[in-house]
Structure formats: structure tokens, C-alpha cells
């Protein structure tokens, strides 16, 4: 087994407040005391004074917890081929991995949240780190750790194999309640063998002396291989799976299933979704969303053009893997049922419509002045309200209507104006660090100690008059950035003065709409509540919160 050193001095407090020790200084100190201090090590933020990880280890495990946490992690800058970094967190705060030396940073999730493991392997050819897809695994082990530890795992586990620690055969335990997978970065082949055999289309057989018989085994080269224990034996084929972001601790869909159903909802949402990396011909993925926030499906391996595929509230996408072209094929989508609203011709009347199934309600192009229309939803999924004319100052197309929500509109001056509407409430994790354009007139985001982000960026567009309200109870501050200006008191337009009879007075001056000072950022401390309002004339956010309270 490789040399393992554990560095975790106690009593230093949070890394942010500990004596600062750079990664290079820490590395020099370690090597000065032990020139052969390579192999495997376990570090913490308090041990190195932050998140700049030192070089020189074949496997570096970085553990975080409350009181021993850092917001930004930088991977080692002088790594060797197949060096590995495992990041584990039990802290109540999210952290992020710097993307500058990660080769698949544009597709990989680099956010570290509570209860997750992230695995990076260094590629000498590209001179960058590769973020290994976790595919739902919550624990990472090296091959040497797995030699004696697979029988006692308590969660789905990923085993890392490199040339430094590459077994000729890896033995699965006799049985297990958990998924065990292997990711190989090695240049040689490893055989996976189980006491009860492996059910696989790609298995070979080998003579096992203890059994006095030929036993199936699977050879693995570079890449990810998954195995499940089912009906007394191991298999690399798993039945259909119904999963959510909370199940996977992210959006990386696992391979090995004939069908994966992935459902998003508020409180159970992820922004970026990655399709299975090792699919078989005919494998199917169905991804649907009832969440307020938009999600994005990576299309790098999809037979389509353009960027990521948007997944909005009420939408569903089905993809089927075609082995002949080695790509996922996007199936035709069933649109929401469109329901045009027909109103009574009586002026000043009221009307209502109840959405009993998820549908797309179309407001009339015209109506008698002062007509009030109320739309409610008793559907089990999200619907939408669309319109051929503007929603007054709240022009937005569409409005997302969630189950049990209600919206009221009043028609006058040739347009529908929102009167009553529902606020969409999000946690910090649901909102993410880069906020999406609002899908409701008011969006309320709550930040807490167990759901905290160091920074949040306001969206670049919204409906005129839209409000984003951010409130915090967290002990640490959050910095809000975006295109925003200080709010300014608007002076009312002077009234038109009376003139002599028969002479029309001059027209009033145009409305005053001054732009306040542009703000680089707003700091939100615990107990603060800040409101940002989208100015439809200037296309920026207005706020009266100019710093920390």
C-alpha cells in the first residue's frame, strides 16, 4: 500500500482566520522533514491555510467541514501524469474549484456541496486536470484502499485505478447493497472478478483455483465501468432507474441503465445535466422539470447543433442512444396543450380559468377595458401563460404557473396588466451563483448557513419591474454583482398650469427617470434583505442597498 500521511492539526479554527501558509511553503516544509513524502495524503483547509493544494502527491484527499472550510480550491500546479485529487465535504457551505487548469471545466460541475466527493485526475498530455464523472457515487477509493475495503462500503463507491497502483485483478465482494464502479486512468488492462461471477455481454472466463472452475470476468481499460449486485451475482447491466438531483448529488447521469428517468423540482434541482458517458445501443434517458429555474443538458454527445439544451419548467426531453453514430438522438417533444381564452363581450366583466392539466394558456389579443381575468392552476405540473400583447410594464413571455398558483390581469390601454401574482421562492442552491432571468414578477431567494454562496450574479435581463429579493440569515456575507445602479428618488412631473380660457396649455415635460450611481457590488450580511428591481428603460437593476448593513 502507498505511503499515507494525514495532516490535520487541531485548534487552528476556520482556514480564513488561521495563520496563512501558502501551498508552496507547506510543500517545502513537508519535504524538508520527509523528502520521500509522496504517495497518498489527507489535508484540510486549516492544515494549509486555505485551498491552494500542494503538488507532489500521487493521491491527495482534501477534507472540509464546518470550521475547517475554504470557499475556493486550486488544484496542484506541478502534477505528474495520473496524479489524483479527491475533494470531500461535510461543511454546510458550498465551495468551488478553480477552473483555469481543468480541461473539461466547461462541462464539469466544479461546485463542492455537502456530502459529495469530487475526483480529478491529471493528464500529462494536456497538462490539465480531468474531472471524473461521479455518476451518482458519493465515495471515492483508490485501488489500494479498495483491496480490503470494498466489503464494508456504506454508499455507492467509485474505485480509481492508475498505473502506480494497478492490480492485475480487482475482486468485488461476495455481495453488496451498493453500486461499485471503477474508473481507470491506467495504460494497462485490469480484470474485474467476483466470487459469484459477473453477468455481462463482454465477459471472458478464467480458471479460479479456489473454485476449481472457469469464472467470468470483465477486462477494463481506460474509462468508467459500473457494476451492480442483483439476484445473487454481479452484473454490468442494471434495470431502469428513476433518479433526482438529490439522489445523485448533482446532474451526472449514470451509465448501465436501459432507461434513466431524471426529474427536477424546486428543492431538488441542478443547473447542468450530463448524459451517461458509457451508454449501450437503445439506452433511453427521460429528463423532465417542474422547477422554477432553467436547467441545461450538455449536448457534446448529442446528434444536434448548437449549445446546451434548455430544460424549462413543464418541459420534458427524451434521448435515445444510437450506437451506429455513437451519439444520443433527441426525440420529438410533445408540446403543452394550447388553450386560447375567450371572454364575454361585456365591458368591465370578470372572467376566470382553472388550469386542471399542465397547459399553455393564451391571453386574448384584445378585451373590453377594465376586464379582469384570473388564471389559477390545480394541475400537478407547471403550465404557462403567453400573450400576443405586452403585459404592461411586466412584459414577459411566458409566465410560469406552478401548481396552486394564481395570476390576475386587468386589460386597459390595449394591454394586459398584472394585478396579482405569485412570488417564486428559491433557496441559494436552487438559484445558483449565476441567477437565471426571472420567470415571475417577484423572486425571493433565501441564504442560510446550511445553504450559502460567497457570490451571486444578477441576470442580464428580466421583465420590466421584475423584483429579485435576496435575504440572508447566514453568518458569512454574500457579494452580489451585476449591472446595477443606486436607486434615486424620482421627482414627480409638474402639473400643467391653468391658462386663459380657450388656450390649450403647453404639454407637460417628459417623466424624470434619473440613473443613480453604478454599483460594482452589494454586500449582503446576515439579517440583511435587499431588493433589486429591473428598470425596463435602462436595462439594469435598481437597488437602494449600497453595501453591508
Characterization of this structure:
- The chain is mostly beta strands and 549 residues long.
- The chain has 4 domains: 4-235, Jelly Rolls (Sandwich); 241-330, Sandwich (Jelly Rolls), CATH 2.60.120; 337-420; 423-543, Jelly Rolls, CATH 2.60.120.
- It is built from 5 helices and 43 strands.
- Strands 36, 37, 38, 39, 40, 41, 42 and 43 form an 8-stranded mixed sheet that branches. It has a 6-stranded mixed sheet with strand order 1-2-3-5-8-9. A 6-stranded mixed sheet has the order 10-11-13-18-19-15.
- Helix 4 links the parallel strand 20 (241-243) and strand 21 (259-264).
- The protein is globular, with a radius of gyration of 29 Å.
Short account of what is shown:
With 549 residues, this protein is mostly beta strands.
Topology:
Layout: E1 4-6, H1 23-33, E2 40-43, H2 45-48, E3 59-64, E4 72-73, E5 84-89, E6 95-97, E7 111-112, E8 117-123, E9 128-131, E10 139-142, H3 143-149, E11 157-161, E12 169-171, E13 180-184, E14 190-193, E15 198-199, E16 204-208, E17 213-220, E18 223-230, E19 233-235, E20 241-243, H4 245-248, E21 259-264, E22 272-273, E23 284-289, E24 295-297, E25 309-311, E26 316-322, E27 327-330, E28 337-340, E29 350-355, E30 359-363, E31 371-377, E32 383-387, E33 399-401, E34 406-412, E35 415-420, E36 423-427, H5 428-431, E37 442-447, E38 455-457, E39 467-472, E40 478-486, E41 518-524, E42 529-535, E43 540-543
Parallel strand pairs: 1-2, 2-3, 3-5, 4-6, 10-11, 11-13, 12-14, 15-19, 20-21, 21-23, 22-24, 28-30, 29-31, 30-32, 36-37, 37-39, 38-40, 40-43
Antiparallel strand pairs: 5-8, 6-7, 8-9, 13-18, 14-17, 16-17, 18-19, 23-26, 24-25, 26-27, 31-34, 32-33, 34-35, 39-42, 40-41, 42-43
Amino acid at each position: 500500500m502507498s505511503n499515507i500521511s494525514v495532516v490535520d492539526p487541531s485548534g487552528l479554527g476556520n482556514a480564513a482566520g488561521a495563520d496563512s501558509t501558502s501551498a508552496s511553503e507547506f510543500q517545502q516544509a513537508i519535504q524538508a522533514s520527509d523528502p520521500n513524502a509522496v504517495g497518498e495524503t489527507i489535508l484540510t483547509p486549516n492544515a494549509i491555510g486555505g485551498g491552494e493544494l500542494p503538488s507532489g502527491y500521487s493521491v491527495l484527499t482534501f477534507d472540509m467541514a464546518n470550521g475547517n472550510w475554504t470557499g475556493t480550491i486550486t488544484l496542484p500546479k506541478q502534477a505528474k501524469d495520473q496524479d489524483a485529487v479527491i475533494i470531500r465535504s461535510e461543511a454546510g457551505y458550498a465551495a468551488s474549484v478553480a477552473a483555469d487548469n481543468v480541461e473539461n471545466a466547461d462541462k464539469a460541475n466544479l461546485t463542492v456541496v455537502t456530502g459529495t466527493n469530487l475526483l480529478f485526475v491529471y493528464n500529462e498530455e494536456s497538462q490539465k486536470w480531468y474531472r471524473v464523472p461521479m455518476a451518482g457515487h458519493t465515495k471515492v477509493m483508490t485501488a489500494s484502499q479498495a483491496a480490503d475495503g470494498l466489503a464494508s462500503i456504506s454508499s455507492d463507491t467509485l474505485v480509481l485505478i492508475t498505473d502506480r497502483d494497478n492490480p492485475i485483478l480487482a475482486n468485488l465482494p461476495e455481495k453488496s447493497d451498493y453500486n461499485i464502479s471503477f474508473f481507470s486512468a491506467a495504460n494497462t488492462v485490469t480484470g474485474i472478478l467476483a466470487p459469484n461471477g459477473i453477468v455481462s455481454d463482454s465477459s471472458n472466463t478464467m480458471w479460479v483455483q479456489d473454485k476449481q472452475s472457469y469464472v467470468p470476468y470483465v477486462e477494463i481499460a481506460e474509462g468508467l465501468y459500473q457494476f451492480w449486485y442483483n439476484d445473487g451475482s454481479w452484473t454490468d447491466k442494471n434495470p431502469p432507474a428513476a433518479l433526482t438531483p438529490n439522489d445523485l448529488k448533482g446532474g451526472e447521469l449514470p451509465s448501465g441503465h436501459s432507461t434513466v428517468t431524471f426529474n427536477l423540482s424546486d428543492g431538488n434541482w441542478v443547473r447542468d445535466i450530463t448524459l451517461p458517458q458509457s451508454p449501450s445501443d437503445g439506452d433511453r434517458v427521460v429528463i423532465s422539470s417542474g422547477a422554477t429555474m432553467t436547467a441545461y443538458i450538455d449536448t457534446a454527445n448529442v446528434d444536434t447543433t448548437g449549445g446546451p439544451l434548455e430544460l424549462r419548467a413543464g418541459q420534458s426531453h427524451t434521448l435515445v442512444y444510437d450506437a451506429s453514430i455513437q451519439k444520443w438522438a433527441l426525440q420529438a417533444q410533445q408540446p403543452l396543450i394550447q388553450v386560447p381564452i375567450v371572454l364575454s363581450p361585456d365591458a368591465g366583466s370578470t372572467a376566470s380559468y382553472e388550469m386542471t392539466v399542465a397547459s399553455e394558456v393564451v391571453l386574448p389579443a384584445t378585451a373590453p377595458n377594465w376586464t379582469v381575468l384570473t388564471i389559477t392552476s390545480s394541475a400537478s405540473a407547471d403550465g404557462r401563460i403567453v400573450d400576443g400583447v405586452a403585459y404592461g410594464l411586466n412584459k414577459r413571455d411566458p409566465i410560469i404557473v406552478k401548481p396552486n398558483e394564481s395570476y390576475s390581469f386587468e386589460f386597459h390601454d390595449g394591454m394586459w396588466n398584472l394585478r396579482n401574482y405569485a412570488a417564486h421562492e428559491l433557496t441559494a442552491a436552487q438559484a445558483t451563483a449565476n441567477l437565471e432571468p426571472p420567470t415571475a414578477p417577484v423572486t425571493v431567494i433565501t441564504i442560510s448557513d446550511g445553504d450559502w454562496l460567497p457570490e451571486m450574479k444578477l441576470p442580464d435581463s428580466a421583465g420590466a419591474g421584475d423584483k429579485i429579493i435576496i435575504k440572508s440569515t447566514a453568518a458569512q456575507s454574500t457579494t452580489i454583482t451585476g449591472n446595477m445602479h443606486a436607486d434615486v428618488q424620482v421627482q414627480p412631473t409638474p402639473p400643467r398650469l391653468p391658462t386663459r380660457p380657450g388656450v390649450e396649455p403647453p404639454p407637460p415635460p417628459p417623466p424624470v427617470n434619473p440613473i443613480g450611481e453604478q454599483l460594482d457590488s452589494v454586500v449582503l450580511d446576515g439579517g440583511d434583505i435587499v431588493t433589486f428591481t429591473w428598470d425596463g428603460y435602462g436595462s439594469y437593476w435598481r437597488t437602494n442597498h449600497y453595501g453591508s448593513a
